[in-house]
Structure formats: C-alpha cells, structure tokens
Specification:
Strands 5-4-3-6-7-8 form a six-stranded parallel sheet, with helices on both faces. By secondary structure, it is α/β, with parallel strands linked by helices. Strand 4, helix 2 and strand 5 form a beta-alpha-beta unit. It is globular and about 55 Å long.
C-alpha cells in the first residue's frame, strides 16, 4: 500500500502479473512489458539432440517430469534436484554468461518448460521459454501460469501435469524441430529483444510523466 500510494505507473512482465497488481488494489498506469533476452541468443543455430531445461532444479519447475528422458536430458541450472537428474542419467551444467548459455542452447533439440502451479507459486513469466525461442530451440511447455501468454504460437503447450502429452510432444518434435524453432525465434524477435523492451519502457515513462 505504501508503494501503491507513491507511484504512478508499474510495468509487470505479463498479463498474469498485471492481474495480481490490480487485485492487490493498484489503480495507476499499468503497462505489461516482458523481460528481454540478449541479442547473442538470436545468433544461436541449434544442432544438438539433447532435451533441454533451463532454470532452478526444484519440484515446482517440473524437473521430476523430465527424469524419464534419461541420458538425453540436459539441465542448465542448479538446485536440490540436481542429484536426481544425474542419477537418471541426465547432465547438469551451469551457464554464468550469455555466451555459456548460448553454447548450451546449441546442444538442444527441444527445450521443455514443465512448470507446475503450487499453493504459493505460479509461473509469472517463463524466461527460459523466451530464451529458447530466441535461440531457435522449439519449446514444449505446460500451460501453467503465464507460459501460454509468453509462448503463444511459438511452441507447443500441453495441459499442466499431463506428462504423457508432454513426452508425446517432445518425441514428435525430435523428428523435425527446425520449423517450430524458427517460428518461436520470429516471435521472440518481435517481442523480447531489449531494444523493443526499452522502447516500451520509455513510452511508459512518457505516459506517466
């Protein structure tokens, strides 16, 4: 309430987040402005065969639903489920820079974003999906939180928690991932470049001031 009474505008990263602001009582100017992705990711040309995941290795990110992919699984991140991924035969790596992330994305054929809604958490954006799309890696995701809004027609959405449909979607993409990957890249280019994000933020400041 202290903040709401002192600011004229806010820029949540998704319509889902904007709805939360309004539910909490904010009545000022709201512009939905997504997180951006670095330009270097648009230069990635994926050539690998791995099934990828980017993010925290925690239950609410749906990591357990990926363990069945075994040795094909490549997780970029860290967290308490790292050992479970390794025990299933998967690989866990870190990416401390844009260049390292771009390299790991080249190794992927598909990126999976199986986030799950919990009592205290709902996916508010899905940066991993935006990064995968920018790199031309086709994205398969649960229709959780803001992921449908972020992915649009640039990936495949399956019902949250339906692991069978998730595996089927990934398997079908492995046969020919490139067309969907490039469609996702085109969506990311139009929506998630920092140049675009910056212009939208400048427009918000002008409107508020």
């Amino acid at each position: 309430r202290w903040v709401f009474g002192r600011v004229s505008g806010m820029y949540p990263c998704s319509e889902l987040s904007a709805a939360v602001l309004r539910e909490w009582g904010f009545r000022g100017h709201v512009s939905v402005i997504p997180y951006g992705v670095e330009d270097e990711l648009f230069e990635v040309r994926p050539s690998g065969e791995r099934i990828g995941f980017i993010g925290r290795l925690v239950p609410q990110k749906g990591v357990v639903d990926l363990l069945g992919f075994g040795r094909r699984l490549l997780c970029v991140g860290a967290g308490p489920l790292a050992d479970a991924v390794r025990e299933a035969g998967g690989e866990v790596v870190s990416a401390r820079s844009t260049e390292e992330l771009a390299h790991q994305l080249t190794r992927m054929a598909v990126l999976v974003a199986p986030s799950r809604t919990t009592a205290g958490l709902k996916e508010q954006f899905g940066r991993m999906a935006a990064e995968g799309m920018a790199a031309g890696v086709p994205v398969v995701a649960y229709d959780s939180g803001a992921l449908p809004e972020i992915i649009g027609d640039g990936g495949i959405l399956v019902p949250e928690g339906d692991r069978t449909r998730l595996v089927e979607a990934v398997t079908s993409l492995l046969r020919d991932p490139r067309p969907l990957g490039e469609r996702g890249r085109a969506r990311a280019w139009s929506r998630f470049r920092w140049r675009t994000v910056a212009a939208e933020m400048a427009a918000l400041y002008r409107a508020v001031l």
